[in-house]
Design goal:
The protein is α/β, with parallel strands linked by helices. 29% of the residues lie in helices and 30% in strands. It contains ten helices and 15 strands. α3 packs across α4 and α5 packs antiparallel against α7. The chain is globular.
Protein backbone atom coordinates (compact mmCIF):
# COMPACT_ATOMS: atom_id res chain seq x y z
CA UNK A 1 0.00 0.00 0.00
CA UNK A 2 1.36 3.50 -0.81
CA UNK A 3 2.17 5.87 2.04
CA UNK A 4 -1.12 7.61 2.92
CA UNK A 5 0.55 10.94 3.69
CA UNK A 6 2.34 10.88 0.33
CA UNK A 7 -0.93 10.06 -1.42
CA UNK A 8 -2.64 13.03 0.25
CA UNK A 9 0.24 15.32 -0.73
CA UNK A 10 -0.04 14.24 -4.38
CA UNK A 11 -3.84 14.68 -4.29
CA UNK A 12 -3.41 18.12 -2.71
CA UNK A 13 -0.99 19.18 -5.45
CA UNK A 14 -3.35 17.98 -8.18
CA UNK A 15 -6.35 19.68 -6.58
CA UNK A 16 -4.33 22.85 -6.09
CA UNK A 17 -3.54 22.96 -9.80
CA UNK A 18 -7.15 22.14 -10.74
CA UNK A 19 -8.42 24.79 -8.34
CA UNK A 20 -6.04 27.40 -9.73
CA UNK A 21 -7.11 26.62 -13.28
CA UNK A 22 -10.78 26.70 -12.32
CA UNK A 23 -10.59 30.10 -10.69
CA UNK A 24 -8.25 31.70 -13.21
CA UNK A 25 -9.05 35.09 -11.71
CA UNK A 26 -10.10 36.74 -8.48
CA UNK A 27 -13.37 35.46 -6.96
CA UNK A 28 -16.40 37.78 -6.91
CA UNK A 29 -16.31 40.48 -4.21
CA UNK A 30 -17.77 39.27 -0.93
CA UNK A 31 -20.11 42.28 -0.78
CA UNK A 32 -21.24 42.02 -4.41
CA UNK A 33 -24.46 40.51 -5.78
CA UNK A 34 -24.98 36.77 -5.41
CA UNK A 35 -26.25 35.22 -8.67
CA UNK A 36 -29.67 33.58 -8.30
CA UNK A 37 -29.97 29.81 -8.68
CA UNK A 38 -32.70 27.21 -8.55
CA UNK A 39 -32.48 25.59 -5.13
CA UNK A 40 -32.86 21.88 -4.51
CA UNK A 41 -35.76 20.11 -2.85
CA UNK A 42 -35.97 20.19 0.96
CA UNK A 43 -36.11 16.59 2.19
CA UNK A 44 -36.91 15.40 5.70
CA UNK A 45 -34.36 12.92 7.04
CA UNK A 46 -35.35 12.45 10.69
CA UNK A 47 -37.80 13.48 13.37
CA UNK A 48 -37.60 13.46 17.15
CA UNK A 49 -39.34 14.71 20.24
CA UNK A 50 -37.90 18.21 20.00
CA UNK A 51 -36.41 18.56 16.52
CA UNK A 52 -36.93 17.59 12.90
CA UNK A 53 -34.03 17.48 10.46
CA UNK A 54 -34.10 18.23 6.75
CA UNK A 55 -31.49 18.49 4.04
CA UNK A 56 -31.07 20.38 0.79
CA UNK A 57 -28.23 21.49 -1.47
CA UNK A 58 -27.22 24.12 -3.99
CA UNK A 59 -24.19 24.90 -6.18
CA UNK A 60 -21.47 27.01 -4.59
CA UNK A 61 -21.30 30.63 -5.72
CA UNK A 62 -17.60 30.16 -6.54
CA UNK A 63 -16.51 27.21 -8.68
CA UNK A 64 -13.25 25.77 -7.35
CA UNK A 65 -13.13 22.97 -9.91
CA UNK A 66 -13.36 20.36 -7.14
CA UNK A 67 -16.80 18.72 -7.49
CA UNK A 68 -17.25 17.81 -3.82
CA UNK A 69 -16.33 21.32 -2.72
CA UNK A 70 -18.61 23.00 -5.24
CA UNK A 71 -21.84 21.53 -3.87
CA UNK A 72 -23.14 22.98 -0.60
CA UNK A 73 -25.25 20.50 1.39
CA UNK A 74 -27.26 22.10 4.17
CA UNK A 75 -28.55 20.43 7.32
CA UNK A 76 -31.70 22.15 8.53
CA UNK A 77 -32.91 21.53 12.09
CA UNK A 78 -36.38 22.78 13.02
CA UNK A 79 -38.24 22.75 16.35
CA UNK A 80 -40.90 20.05 16.25
CA UNK A 81 -43.39 22.17 18.17
CA UNK A 82 -43.95 25.19 15.95
CA UNK A 83 -47.15 26.91 14.92
CA UNK A 84 -45.79 29.25 12.27
CA UNK A 85 -42.61 30.70 10.79
CA UNK A 86 -39.64 30.68 13.17
CA UNK A 87 -36.37 32.64 13.42
CA UNK A 88 -33.28 30.86 12.10
CA UNK A 89 -29.54 30.87 12.88
CA UNK A 90 -26.86 29.82 10.38
CA UNK A 91 -24.21 27.80 12.25
CA UNK A 92 -20.60 27.55 11.06
CA UNK A 93 -18.10 25.02 12.42
CA UNK A 94 -14.40 25.15 13.31
CA UNK A 95 -11.41 24.32 11.09
CA UNK A 96 -10.92 20.59 10.53
CA UNK A 97 -14.32 19.55 11.86
CA UNK A 98 -15.13 15.93 11.08
CA UNK A 99 -18.70 16.12 12.36
CA UNK A 100 -21.31 18.68 13.45
CA UNK A 101 -21.69 17.49 17.05
CA UNK A 102 -21.22 20.98 18.53
CA UNK A 103 -23.54 22.62 16.01
CA UNK A 104 -26.21 19.94 16.46
CA UNK A 105 -26.14 20.48 20.23
CA UNK A 106 -26.50 24.21 19.67
CA UNK A 107 -29.33 23.61 17.20
CA UNK A 108 -31.14 21.54 19.83
CA UNK A 109 -30.82 24.35 22.38
CA UNK A 110 -32.06 26.85 19.82
CA UNK A 111 -35.00 24.57 18.99
CA UNK A 112 -36.04 24.41 22.64
CA UNK A 113 -36.29 28.21 22.49
CA UNK A 114 -38.32 28.14 19.28
CA UNK A 115 -35.57 28.79 16.71
CA UNK A 116 -34.40 26.82 13.69
CA UNK A 117 -30.81 26.23 12.58
CA UNK A 118 -29.08 25.80 9.25
CA UNK A 119 -25.71 24.02 9.38
CA UNK A 120 -23.53 24.97 6.41
CA UNK A 121 -20.24 23.13 5.77
CA UNK A 122 -17.29 25.41 5.07
CA UNK A 123 -15.26 24.88 1.89
CA UNK A 124 -13.22 21.65 1.81
CA UNK A 125 -14.92 20.36 5.00
CA UNK A 126 -17.34 17.54 5.83
CA UNK A 127 -19.48 16.79 2.74
CA UNK A 128 -17.27 19.19 0.76
CA UNK A 129 -14.06 17.26 1.46
CA UNK A 130 -12.31 16.08 -1.73
CA UNK A 131 -11.94 12.32 -2.00
CA UNK A 132 -8.72 11.09 -0.40
CA UNK A 133 -8.28 14.20 1.75
CA UNK A 134 -8.99 15.00 5.39
CA UNK A 135 -11.76 17.42 6.31
CA UNK A 136 -10.36 20.95 6.15
CA UNK A 137 -6.96 19.89 4.82
CA UNK A 138 -7.19 22.30 1.88
CA UNK A 139 -9.03 25.09 3.69
CA UNK A 140 -6.00 27.10 4.86
CA UNK A 141 -3.23 27.07 2.27
CA UNK A 142 0.00 29.14 2.28
CA UNK A 143 -1.08 31.08 -0.79
CA UNK A 144 -2.83 34.47 -0.40
CA UNK A 145 -4.74 34.01 -3.67
CA UNK A 146 -6.18 30.69 -2.47
CA UNK A 147 -6.89 32.15 0.96
CA UNK A 148 -8.90 34.91 -0.70
CA UNK A 149 -10.69 32.40 -2.91
CA UNK A 150 -11.62 30.05 -0.07
CA UNK A 151 -12.74 32.84 2.25
CA UNK A 152 -14.80 34.48 -0.50
CA UNK A 153 -16.36 31.13 -1.40
CA UNK A 154 -17.35 30.54 2.22
CA UNK A 155 -18.90 33.99 2.69
CA UNK A 156 -20.74 34.00 -0.64
CA UNK A 157 -22.12 30.54 0.15
CA UNK A 158 -23.38 31.86 3.49
CA UNK A 159 -25.10 34.70 1.63
CA UNK A 160 -26.65 32.22 -0.82
CA UNK A 161 -27.88 30.29 2.21
CA UNK A 162 -29.63 33.48 3.32
CA UNK A 163 -31.16 33.67 -0.18
CA UNK A 164 -32.44 30.11 0.25
CA UNK A 165 -33.91 30.93 3.67
CA UNK A 166 -35.79 33.86 2.11
CA UNK A 167 -37.56 31.43 -0.28
CA UNK A 168 -38.97 29.27 2.54
CA UNK A 169 -42.17 30.05 4.41
CA UNK A 170 -40.96 27.97 7.39
CA UNK A 171 -38.73 30.87 8.43
CA UNK A 172 -39.79 34.21 9.85
CA UNK A 173 -38.93 37.06 7.46
CA UNK A 174 -36.20 39.37 8.74
CA UNK A 175 -35.21 36.99 11.55
CA UNK A 176 -31.88 35.48 10.46
CA UNK A 177 -28.67 35.40 12.53
CA UNK A 178 -25.23 33.87 12.06
CA UNK A 179 -23.00 32.14 14.61
CA UNK A 180 -19.56 30.60 14.12
CA UNK A 181 -16.74 29.01 16.07
CA UNK A 182 -13.01 29.58 15.41
CA UNK A 183 -12.59 29.48 11.60
CA UNK A 184 -16.39 29.52 11.44
CA UNK A 185 -16.29 32.73 13.47
CA UNK A 186 -13.89 34.38 10.99
CA UNK A 187 -16.30 33.53 8.17
CA UNK A 188 -19.34 34.58 10.21
CA UNK A 189 -17.77 37.97 11.02
CA UNK A 190 -17.17 38.76 7.37
CA UNK A 191 -20.59 37.46 6.31
CA UNK A 192 -22.26 39.52 9.04
CA UNK A 193 -20.34 42.63 7.94
CA UNK A 194 -21.37 42.41 4.27
CA UNK A 195 -24.87 40.91 4.63
CA UNK A 196 -27.40 43.45 5.99
CA UNK A 197 -30.12 40.79 6.28
CA UNK A 198 -28.45 39.34 9.35
CA UNK A 199 -30.28 40.46 12.47
CA UNK A 200 -27.42 39.52 14.81
CA UNK A 201 -24.06 37.73 14.98
CA UNK A 202 -22.39 35.48 17.56
CA UNK A 203 -18.64 35.01 17.18
CA UNK A 204 -17.04 32.34 19.36
CA UNK A 205 -13.25 32.07 19.69
CA UNK A 206 -12.66 34.20 16.62
CA UNK A 207 -10.88 37.41 15.81
CA UNK A 208 -10.24 39.99 13.13
CA UNK A 209 -7.04 40.86 11.25
CA UNK A 210 -6.57 37.63 9.30
CA UNK A 211 -2.90 38.34 8.66
CA UNK A 212 -2.36 38.85 12.39
CA UNK A 213 -3.98 35.49 13.08
CA UNK A 214 -1.90 33.70 10.45
CA UNK A 215 1.31 35.35 11.61
CA UNK A 216 0.88 34.60 15.32
CA UNK A 217 -1.34 31.53 15.63
CA UNK A 218 0.09 28.31 17.06
CA UNK A 219 -2.22 26.38 14.70
CA UNK A 220 -0.68 27.43 11.37
CA UNK A 221 3.08 27.15 11.94
CA UNK A 222 3.72 25.22 8.71
CA UNK A 223 1.62 27.58 6.61
CA UNK A 224 3.37 30.61 8.14
CA UNK A 225 6.84 29.21 7.43
CA UNK A 226 5.83 28.45 3.85
CA UNK A 227 4.62 32.04 3.42
CA UNK A 228 7.93 33.32 4.80
CA UNK A 229 9.84 31.19 2.32
CA UNK A 230 7.79 32.78 -0.44
CA UNK A 231 8.92 36.21 0.75
CA UNK A 232 5.79 37.28 2.60
CA UNK A 233 5.83 39.46 5.69
CA UNK A 234 2.87 40.08 7.96
CA UNK A 235 2.26 43.51 6.42
CA UNK A 236 2.51 42.19 2.86
CA UNK A 237 0.07 39.39 3.71
CA UNK A 238 -2.28 41.91 5.32
CA UNK A 239 -2.37 43.92 2.08
CA UNK A 240 -3.12 40.76 0.08
CA UNK A 241 -6.06 39.82 2.32
CA UNK A 242 -7.83 43.21 2.35
CA UNK A 243 -10.67 41.96 0.06
CA UNK A 244 -11.64 39.26 2.59
CA UNK A 245 -10.63 40.97 5.83
CA UNK A 246 -13.54 41.51 8.29
CA UNK A 247 -12.00 44.82 9.41
CA UNK A 248 -12.40 46.10 5.84
CA UNK A 249 -16.20 45.87 6.12
CA UNK A 250 -17.16 46.06 9.81
CA UNK A 251 -18.69 49.40 10.80
CA UNK A 252 -18.52 50.86 14.28
CA UNK A 253 -21.90 52.57 13.80
CA UNK A 254 -23.66 49.25 13.05
CA UNK A 255 -26.29 48.86 15.78
CA UNK A 256 -27.16 45.20 15.17
CA UNK A 257 -26.45 43.12 18.31
CA UNK A 258 -23.32 40.98 18.44
CA UNK A 259 -21.85 38.61 21.00
CA UNK A 260 -18.15 37.73 21.18
CA UNK A 261 -16.72 34.84 23.20
CA UNK A 262 -12.95 35.06 23.60
CA UNK A 263 -10.39 33.03 25.54
CA UNK A 264 -7.82 34.94 27.55
CA UNK A 265 -5.09 32.29 27.13
CA UNK A 266 -5.77 31.65 23.43
CA UNK A 267 -2.72 30.92 21.27
CA UNK A 268 -4.70 29.82 18.19
CA UNK A 269 -6.64 33.07 17.82
CA UNK A 270 -4.31 35.59 19.52
CA UNK A 271 -6.04 37.85 22.08
CA UNK A 272 -5.10 41.05 20.25
CA UNK A 273 -6.99 39.86 17.16
CA UNK A 274 -10.05 39.08 19.29
CA UNK A 275 -9.78 42.57 20.75
CA UNK A 276 -9.52 44.04 17.24
CA UNK A 277 -12.84 42.38 16.42
CA UNK A 278 -14.47 43.72 19.57
CA UNK A 279 -13.14 47.23 18.87
CA UNK A 280 -14.77 47.26 15.42
CA UNK A 281 -18.24 46.17 16.52
CA UNK A 282 -20.78 48.84 17.42
CA UNK A 283 -23.21 46.94 19.64
CA UNK A 284 -21.28 44.13 21.29
CA UNK A 285 -21.42 41.99 24.42
CA UNK A 286 -18.28 40.09 25.42
CA UNK A 287 -17.73 36.93 27.44
CA UNK A 288 -14.14 36.12 28.43
CA UNK A 289 -13.17 32.52 29.18
CA UNK A 290 -10.16 31.93 31.44
CA UNK A 291 -8.99 29.18 29.11
CA UNK A 292 -7.06 28.56 25.93
CA UNK A 293 -8.65 28.04 22.53
CA UNK A 294 -9.88 24.53 23.30
CA UNK A 295 -11.03 25.09 26.87
CA UNK A 296 -14.53 26.00 25.81
CA UNK A 297 -15.40 22.30 25.66
CA UNK A 298 -15.11 22.22 29.46
CA UNK A 299 -18.09 24.59 29.70
CA UNK A 300 -19.69 23.72 26.37
CA UNK A 301 -23.25 23.22 27.58
CA UNK A 302 -23.39 26.53 29.48
CA UNK A 303 -21.68 28.33 26.63
CA UNK A 304 -24.14 27.00 24.06
CA UNK A 305 -27.08 27.95 26.26
CA UNK A 306 -25.68 31.49 26.59
CA UNK A 307 -25.41 31.84 22.81
CA UNK A 308 -28.98 30.55 22.46
CA UNK A 309 -30.19 33.17 24.97
CA UNK A 310 -28.38 35.87 22.99
CA UNK A 311 -30.07 34.79 19.75
CA UNK A 312 -33.49 34.61 21.40
CA UNK A 313 -33.06 38.10 22.87
CA UNK A 314 -31.88 39.51 19.54
CA UNK A 315 -34.89 38.15 17.65
CA UNK A 316 -37.25 39.42 20.37
CA UNK A 317 -35.71 42.91 20.49
CA UNK A 318 -34.84 42.36 24.14
CA UNK A 319 -31.63 43.36 25.86
CA UNK A 320 -28.93 40.79 26.46
CA UNK A 321 -26.05 41.18 28.89
CA UNK A 322 -23.11 38.79 28.76
CA UNK A 323 -22.53 36.94 32.06
CA UNK A 324 -19.94 38.51 34.33
CA UNK A 325 -19.69 35.37 36.46
CA UNK A 326 -18.96 32.45 34.17
CA UNK A 327 -16.57 29.95 35.69
CA UNK A 328 -14.26 28.45 33.09
CA UNK A 329 -11.37 26.40 34.54
CA UNK A 330 -7.82 27.17 33.42
CA UNK A 331 -6.38 23.73 32.64
CA UNK A 332 -2.74 23.27 31.63
CA UNK A 333 -0.87 20.46 29.96
CA UNK A 334 2.62 20.83 31.42
CA UNK A 335 6.11 19.45 31.16
CA UNK A 336 7.78 20.00 34.54
CA UNK A 337 11.38 19.56 35.63
CA UNK A 338 12.29 19.94 39.31
CA UNK A 339 15.35 19.01 41.36
CA UNK A 340 13.46 16.48 43.49
CA UNK A 341 11.58 14.38 40.92
CA UNK A 342 13.22 15.09 37.58
CA UNK A 343 11.24 15.48 34.36
CA UNK A 344 7.59 14.51 34.03
CA UNK A 345 4.42 15.44 32.20
CA UNK A 346 1.30 16.45 34.08
CA UNK A 347 -2.02 18.25 34.02
CA UNK A 348 -2.60 21.35 36.13
CA UNK A 349 -5.63 23.32 37.30
CA UNK A 350 -4.91 26.99 38.11
CA UNK A 351 -6.08 28.13 41.55
CA UNK A 352 -4.52 31.62 41.55
CA UNK A 353 -3.08 34.17 39.12
CA UNK A 354 -1.50 37.55 39.73
CA UNK A 355 -3.29 39.38 36.90
CA UNK A 356 -5.36 38.80 33.78
CA UNK A 357 -2.26 37.77 31.84
CA UNK A 358 -1.28 35.15 34.44
CA UNK A 359 2.23 36.60 34.72
CA UNK A 360 2.42 34.66 37.99
CA UNK A 361 0.17 31.74 38.79
CA UNK A 362 -0.38 28.78 41.09
CA UNK A 363 -1.63 25.47 39.76
CA UNK A 364 -2.46 22.13 41.33
CA UNK A 365 -0.46 19.64 39.26
CA UNK A 366 -1.27 15.97 38.79
CA UNK A 367 1.68 13.98 37.41
CA UNK A 368 2.81 10.33 37.44
CA UNK A 369 4.94 10.94 40.56
CA UNK A 370 2.12 12.44 42.56
CA UNK A 371 0.11 15.55 43.34
CA UNK A 372 1.85 18.89 43.90
CA UNK A 373 1.31 22.63 43.87
CA UNK A 374 3.39 24.75 41.53
CA UNK A 375 3.90 28.50 42.03
CA UNK A 376 5.68 30.17 39.14
CA UNK A 377 6.31 33.33 37.16
CA UNK A 378 6.07 33.41 33.39
CA UNK A 379 9.37 33.94 31.55
CA UNK A 380 7.92 33.93 28.03
CA UNK A 381 5.09 32.30 26.12
CA UNK A 382 4.54 28.95 27.84
CA UNK A 383 7.72 28.90 29.95
CA UNK A 384 7.83 29.70 33.68
CA UNK A 385 10.19 29.42 36.66
CA UNK A 386 9.06 28.73 40.18
CA UNK A 387 8.78 26.33 43.10
CA UNK A 388 6.92 23.06 43.34
CA UNK A 389 5.54 22.05 46.74
CA UNK A 390 5.13 18.35 47.55
CA UNK A 391 4.32 16.57 50.81
CA UNK A 392 7.06 17.53 53.31
CA UNK A 393 9.35 19.17 50.74
CA UNK A 394 9.69 21.83 48.05
CA UNK A 395 12.02 22.23 45.08
CA UNK A 396 12.88 24.72 42.32
CA UNK A 397 11.09 23.91 39.07
CA UNK A 398 11.02 24.82 35.41
CA UNK A 399 7.66 24.37 33.71
CA UNK A 400 6.58 24.60 30.07
CA UNK A 401 2.81 24.59 29.76
CA UNK A 402 0.02 25.22 27.30
CA UNK A 403 -3.47 26.22 28.40
CA UNK A 404 -6.35 24.29 26.83
Amino acid sequence: MPNSKLVRVVIALVLSVVSGLAYGQEPPPVDGPVPPVEFGVLRQVSTGEFTEEFTTSFPSVVASGVPENDTVKLRVIMPTERTGPVPVVILLHFWGATDNMVEVEMAERLAVRGMASVLMPLPYHLSRTPRGMKSGELAVQPDPAKLRQTMAQAVLDVRRTVDWIATRNEFKPGAVAVAGTSLGSLVAELAYAVEPRFRAGAFMLGGADLAGVLWSSSRVVQQREALRRLGYTEDKLRQELVPVEPLTFLKKDDTRPTFVVRARQDTVIPPDTSQALIDHLGNVQVLVLETGHYGGFLVQRRLIDTVARFCEASFSNKSFTAPTKFYSPTVRLAMMADTARGLQVGVGLDVWRSNVNSDAFATVMLAPKGLSIYLGRRVNQGLSLGVVAMPRRAAPALVWSVVF
